[in-house]
Records
---
Amino acid sequence: MKQRMRSDTTTLLALGGIAIAATVLGARKPARAAWSAAPRQTRREAPTHIAAARRFNHSSSLLALSVLADSAVEHYRGSFKNPAMFIPLLSASLSFFAGLHGGRDRRAASHPVRHGIHAFAAMAGIAGTGFHIYNVTKRTGGWSWNNLFYAAPLGAPTALLLSGGLGAIGERLRDQPANEPRLLGMPAGRAMALAVSAGLLGTVGEVGLLHFRGAFQHPAMYAPVIIPPVAATLMVQTALAAPRPRPGTRWWLRLTAALGLLGVGFHARGIARCQGGWRNWSQNIPSGPPLPAPPSFTALALAGLAALRLRQTEK
Amino acid sequence: MSGDAVQHPRARGGQAPDVFRKGGWVSMREYPCDEEVDFVIVGTGAGGATLACRLAEQGFKVVALDAGAWWRPLEEFASDEAHQQKLYWTDQRICDGDNPLKMGSNNSGKAVGGSTVHFAMVSLRFRPEWFKCRSLLGYGADWPIDWREMWRYYDEVEQALSIAGPITYPWGPPRKRYPYRSHELNAAALVLARGAEAMGTAWSATPLATVSAPHGKSPPCVYRGFCVAGCATNAKQSALVTWIPRALKAGAEIRDLAMAGRIETNDLGRAVGVEYFRDGAWRFQRARNVVVAGYAIETPRLLLLSANHRFPDGLANSSGLVGKNLMVQSNQAVWGVMDEEIRSYKGPPSLSISEHWNYQDKGKDFFGGYAYMSQGPLPVGWASTQNGRGLWGAKLSREMQKYNHQAGLKIVGETLPQERNRVTLADEKDQYGLPVARITYGFCDNDKKLIAHALHFMEQALEAAGGKEIWRQEDDTCHLNGTARMGDDPRTSVVNADCRSWDIPNLWICDGSVFPTIGGVNPSLTIQAIACRTADRIRALAQRGEL
């Protein structure tokens, strides 16, 4: 009974996560309208790099939410056997709120608590990757396909690292001058575009592995290994080539963002195809395709759009 | 409802049960008995269902008969080993010889879909050399089929069943990638892996006919573990959920609870149809061709039962080999107790495998090979295995408490064809009034040496994997083959490479009976591959007007 309740709680958490994700994304426009009521002027005049920082905060938040829901379901499935399995839940929760807070913050200065939370997320992501590598290699068979498929997923903690990274970029960007902001020794827009590109490619690696495990049994399973790599390439091009308007890239990033949301729908359909379908949600959500995973692409694509806008202002 | 399936035929009135929907039906074409259909097929297991599907898809008029019931897995397969014995062929038979066989659970099925409804889903290819094992390895008999041709049909069956297998298979020539990925290994499978690594031999995830991702209307396997008692989710790719729905769609008629009793021949020595018992009466289906696919006991029994003045020794029996060369597979095991919890009943029973001794010829004092696999016995079966050890009462109770820590390795071992191992007719009659089969079986010295080698090797492997209190289970056998072997010479075989009988050109045999040798792997994939090949050959012959 207790276990059943835990199961229900976790699943509700996961479903809640999806609902919030949808709200955050869906509410972008109305929310903007609400904020703009009083400080409309301020907002219009806000420096471009602060707008980009806020968008990065939002992306970081969405990514954290995805990690929170995904790790909650998966680590529940792993019975929280190691207490460290709670860390991503804690870290992602903090990052989620930090990201939301940063998204509302128009000040041109980084926030030390938020910055700390993002740094913690990045470190948790790195440590998590270490734990997951250990989990794969300690198994009989070591670096075998079977262990890569079914042991702790190697790429998953990287999403936390990405969330922390996007958030930290958002914070550091605020400390830069409005004119020609720089990050990592290069124009900020370029750095951000490269970061998004790396994030997209890492996520594609994870999706590729898991969709291969699912034998690409549905043609739609190819979409997330085709569309985001193109987006990543366009981001590299954005970073390295001379800044100019790139409507094609913008549309491709929007397509990638939409893909993340569509993915939730396909994964929901995947759960319906499991034995017992949604009526057996307490078993099929943990064991079916992960509902919270696809919005990672949405988060990264939104960050990509922010990087693109900033990059266009650079020389 | 369950009783209903064995009382009254379900496939009638132009419809048949839809195995994918509770209470659902699919439409089915029906043929009147007096219409001469192209093929009447006796049996709907790995051989019969596959052939019925492929022939119907080629446009032939096909009627397939099965003595068993048409079960609805979603509604009628209980998590209850005793109840699920309804899937086994447990009609009366007489078993004798030096090693009398135990018929039922792991060697015969009585249901639409045959024993694939309760098979362990292990889907292995023959070692290529086995198709020429007399010429190349010095024992048994050569097959009249080349392994490269079989390799193509293995590909086809693996695709049709969405076999979940490893990315690279350690033994044999390259094969196409398995359509689905192998399943997660349970603790029992990892015991095999640890043991094999300690022994310096390869191991692998077992290629299995249960899907690891959705396929059509089959959901991915939920690791319920009752596979050999019937899959209640349809993840298992049995003939019942694969070939048979396809066959119906292509216009075949499948008649459940239809027990064939006799194949009629005319004065020209050709088969004209099958007499069968259904719905309280004997009926006769006319056909241009008759295919027998009743597996290694019922196939020779039906051929022998059909003896007439023209064929006094039974049909297709001019070689005298119908019923002879019955081969079982040896199925011995070693069991041990592990420190850690194993819960071997989680998931399909044989998730990992070693085929090392199928492919390694050195270090053997016997002909043939064996595979060994991890095991996941269900509780009642496990108690019965312990009874077989002589444990009862308090001793049994103490042993059963170790159930969750138990792990075992079990072989599927090759035995040699011997004419003294055979199926004949007894004087006793069954519920249909037909003489029952007498099954005579005994291991030869070579078989015993193979078993001794396997037990010795597996004992070391299990010990190296951490097994304690290791003991040997020496009394089990499984799959049955032979009894109507194929070959190139009418004097030494019953059918040719196309599964066509030498004596009666429109009589075919398409099941495990046609195997000249049995190899050390589970036979279902090979039976299905041969059925696919037979279907292609029939099409080619029909196009040339040679049917």
---
Amino acid sequence: MAKTMAAVQAAETREEMGIVIDAQGMHYRDLNRRLREAATEGEARFRLVNVNGQRYIGTGLKGDLHLEICGVPGNDLGAFLSGPTILVRNNAQDAIGNTMDSGSIIVKGDAGDVIGYGMRGGTIFINGNVGYRVGIHMKAYRQKSPVIVIGGAAGDFLGEYMAGGVIILLGLSERNGDPLVGNYCASGMHGGEIYLRGKVDPRHISPHAKIAQTKPTQIEHIRPHIAEFCTHFGYDADKVMGEPFFRLTPVSHRPYGAKYAT
Amino acid sequence: METFRQTRRSHTRYDRGARNISGCGLAGMMSLSGERTDGRLIREAIGLLHDRSNGLGGGFAGYGIYPEWPDHFALHMMYYSLEAQEDAEKALRHNCEVAREEKIPTRPIPTIVDPPLLWRYFVRPKGDLLVERQAPSEDDFILDLVMTINRSVEGAYVFSSGKNMGTFKGVGFAEDIGEFYRVEEYQAHIWVAHGRFPTNTPGWWAGAHPFTLLDWSVVHNGEISSYGINKRYLEQFGYCCSMRTDTEVMAYLLDLLVRRHKLPVPIACRVLAAPFWRDIQQMEEPERRLHKTLRQVYAGALVNGPFAIVFAHKEGMVGLNDRIKLRPLVAARKDDLLLLASEEAAIRTMCPNPDVVWAPRGGEPVIGTLGSMEVEGEPKRRLEEASA
């Protein structure tokens, strides 16, 4: 038998800041159902402890909610997120912020592959390294423009098929000897901007993107995002901004156009 | 134990009718010093990855589980009929000295339905036949026997054939398969496990992972688009693919490359996940020449398509991704433990506080070797845990 609702309730305690849910052994459906119910009842702040691998945490939650996660959340954390802020104290897995609409996801550790898949708004801050295909298919939507800031290094295919928004890669933390960005960065890019801090090996960048030095006006454009990143993780923003940034933008709005019959 | 039960039960609640679009789940744990542990932790880890599979296949391989039979091949057999058993046993007795034969101990549980007959035999090739057939080794003799039974004895399948190791697999969720086969009663220094989500091939008992041959075992998430090329290549060397699924070729390729062609494991990994020509062009000599040669000589052994695999053999355990990492794989170390899994959460089920957790890059293997504390592919500097 699954843990009953009564058992779930018993695993909750109330702190001044909100409710604490012990997720030990809980299936993701039970956990997410409880979150949605509590949010409907007017709870705005949650701390989830002993999280380990539960998927889809916070999926589709709306409004000014705050979730703090202790443990490693499962794939698709904050999918379709629409407003809330999620803080992860540890590492996180794949597909964070899948198709996210608005809100903020902050990860203190590393994160996996396919972060921000198709997101159209909101911000994702990762303190450590990220895996492959981060920012794949991200896009701007009406007044929204999604932002991903990464403190460490990124694997291959960063910003693949990128259609809008901003990716900022800082290379601040330990990189295990890996380059700042992996191969095939910006493959299929046809919108948006990617900012890379420090040295970049052009062999890692797809011919679908052009590489340029960042102009002062463009730096001002990304300064607030970097400042927020530094606030979350305790870096000195001026120092971080002191290094040169390279800016990648698409060569074409239709990089595969020639592959189709007209 | 209670925690595990709750986790597993709350998962099984959603078994029926649930739509599931995930890939397979993998987990592996190895003690580099050879210390053995029972199968509970690996079962718990693969149980945590329940939602990556769909109940159409699960399995385990354990190394070091039959220390009382170090020199005998442990043949694990599936029989779909008593006639199949009779025919296969005839072949076994004709070719081998059978030192012990018994049913594989199982525990009836409601979620595992309609299992085939499951037997195991501890055997050695008959000495006079070894000489008569001029088999290069006992391993090659057993290889031929395995291929012959799997190809030509209707309804009989050898699903494990190594020494002091064994595979336990079938149709069901992995954690249930583990309970069915009583994996908690075996002690192993390497455990690998798999929860299956079959996409292109049938979910049947012998088609579950791990795939094994001699002491090779492979668990795989992905699909091998080069299967036809690999299969035809292997047939030239006497391997016959009869399990109706792609992963089988990996086990046979490893046997061919490492045991028979004596390639070191890191080189064999470069054959399976060969660097792209554009990357070879950028290498320095003599590395460039080595990789060019490997691609030319072993073109038929290149494995194309998305994969994350964990494979094990008597000397160690290895994790490997396809070159552009189209499937997830995470690795971790703690003291003499090497851990591999599809998700970090599964690693933390086996080991709550690893010293280091990392995501291997595409095509770059993580290689643990028995008796060595050095793991190839491990980051040189250990990361600090993000502040809690």
